[in-house]
Amino acid sequence: MTLSLRLVDINGPFIDQSAPVRNWSSFPFCQIDLPVLPYVDQVRLQRGVQRARTYLAAVQAQGYTGIVIDNLAHLVTFDQAPQQYYAPNSPFRLRALAYRQALLPLLHDAAARGMQVYVTCDMQWMTNDLRRVVGPIATDNPQVAALNRAALIDLFTALPMVNGVIVRIGETGGAHDVAGYTGHLIYHEVAAIRHLIATLLPVCTQFDRHLIMRTWTLGIGEAGDLICSPERYAAVFSDQRDPHLLVSIKHTPADFFRLLPPNPTLGLPGPRQIVELQNRREYELFGLVPAGLVGLHSAAIRRAARDPQCVGVWAWNSTGGWGGGGASVGPNGWNLWTEASSALTAALAIHPERDAEQFVSEWFQQRLAGYDSAFVRAVTAAYVESERLIEQGWYLGHAPGMQRIGGMVVPSLLWVWWMRPTAALPVWVYLAELVGDVEPVIAQAEWAVQRAQQLRAAVAAAAPEGDPLVQQLVTSLDYLVDALTIAWRVRALLLPLAAQARGHQRCDLGEAATMLRAAMQQHRMRWAGRTDFPPLELDELASFLARWERSPGVVWQRARLAARLVALARRQPPRSTRARAVLSFLFPTRLRRRLLQTALPWLSRRLDLLPTIFFETGPALGEWARS
Fold it and tell me: Is-contact 408 254, C-beta < 8 A?
C-alpha cells in the first residue's frame, strides 16, 4: 500500500556553513536571530529561502508530498488574540513578522506545487515576554491553555497555507533554548497530554487543520514510555477518533538507532499514524559518511505500509542531533549520501515492495551520469555496503540482550553519542553484558575498518581528478575509515576492561591503551581545524586514558564499582507512582534540580559514570528532575 502522506523536513537549506552551529536538531535560529532591529539576519535568511525553494523542487521530484519547517514560537505574533500578549514593538512579535514575510515565497511555492506545509512546535514553548503575561508554566494554568489556543489561531489565520502543526512534548528546554525562547517539560503525565490534545484539537478542527502529536517522550515521567508502550499509548490515544488528529511515531521503540525491534505502538487503535525516519543519520556521523538504508528502511516502510492505521512517513534529511560539520548538509541542504537516502525513502513509501538495492544502483547511475561507470559502481558499492559496516563497526552488531531502562529500549550504540565517544564505565559494563563474548565484537570492528579501506581505495582508483564532488566523496570515505578505526580501538580497550570487572579478573590491557592513544593522535592531526569534516570529540577518552596511565589500579576499582552499579540497577523494578510521590516528598523539585545540576556532574567526572554529552545537550537536568 502506498503511504500517501510523505513529509520531509526543510531546515537544512537554511544552515550557513560559515557560521557556528552546535544543535543540528532544528532550524538554525541561533544563526539568524538578532538581538536588535531588524531582529533577523535578512541576508542569511533570504539566502536560505532561495536554497530552500530549489530543495523544495528536488524533494517533490523524489516523491514527497509535504514539508515540515520549524517552529511555532518564531511565527506567532498573537495579533489575532483576544488579549495582548506582545506589545507592538516587542522583539518577539517583530521577529515573527520578519520570518513570516521572508518565508512566504517558499510557502506559496509549496502550495502552488500542491505540497502540504507543517510547522513544528515544542510544548511548552515560551518567550521572555510571554512569561510575564502567562504566569506559572504549569499544565493546570488556564492562561497556558489560552496561550496555546491563541497561538494556533494566529498561525492558521496569518499563514492559511499551513496544513497543521507537529507537537513535540518530550524533548525541549536546556540546550534547545535560543536567546529569549525557552522550552519546558510539563506534559509528562497521561492526563496532562490528554488535556493538551483537548486544548489544541478544537482549534485544528475549526480551521480544518491537522494536529500531529509525537510520542517521543525520552523516558521522562509517567508517560516516559509512550514511545514504545502499548499500554501508555492506549491510555492517551485509544478513544481519540477525530480525523484531524494524527500520531507520529518513530519506527523503533527508541531513537533513530539501528538493530532495534519494530515499534510495538505501530497500528494500535486510535488516530491514524505517520512513521518517522531519518535519512541523514545523526548517530552515524551526521551524514559525513555513507550510512546506507537499503535494509533498514525497506523493512520499516514495508511494515508500516501493511498496517491500515499508517498513512504516511516523515523523513528527516537534516534534522536531529548535536554535532557534525559543513559536509553534513553540503552547499544546498544535503550531500550526495543524504540525497540518495532521501530518494530511496520516498521511493519505498510510494512502492514499499520495490527492490531497494536495484533502485539505489539506478539512482546513482542517473545522478552520476557522465562519470566513468567504474567510479559509479564503486560509489554505489560504498553506499550499499556501508549499512553493514555501520552495523558491525560503529554499532556492536546484532546483540541479542538489549534491555529496557526507564521504559525505553536501550540500543547497542551507547559507546558514542553523536561525535563524542564515551569512557563512562557503566555504559561499557552494560555493553559487555549485552554482547557476552567480547572478542568476536572486536574482530568485527577490525573487519569493518579493513572493508572500509577497500571501498575507499576502489572509489579513489576510479575517481577523476579535479572534481569537487568526487573529492568530497573520497574524503568522506577517508573519514569513515578513521572513525571506524577509533571505534575498533576504543572497544578493544574498554570492552575487555568491562568484561574483566564483571568477572573479577584482571589482565594487562596496556597495548590496547597504547593503540587507542596512537589512533586518537592520528585522527586529531588529520582532521584538526576542519569545519567540513570536524574531528571526533575525543576529550572524554583522552581524560580517561590519562587517568589510566597515571593509576590503572584506580580505574580498575572504578570499573568494579560500575559493574556493581549496573547489577544493582538491573534488580530495581520500574519506579511506581507511589515511589515517585515518596521521592517528591523527600526531595522536592527545587532540591532535586539542585542535586542533579551540581552533584551528578561532579560525581560523573570523577567516577566515569555518564557520558559527558549528557550535561550539555537536550533537556536541562532541571527539567529531568521535575519528573
Answer: yes
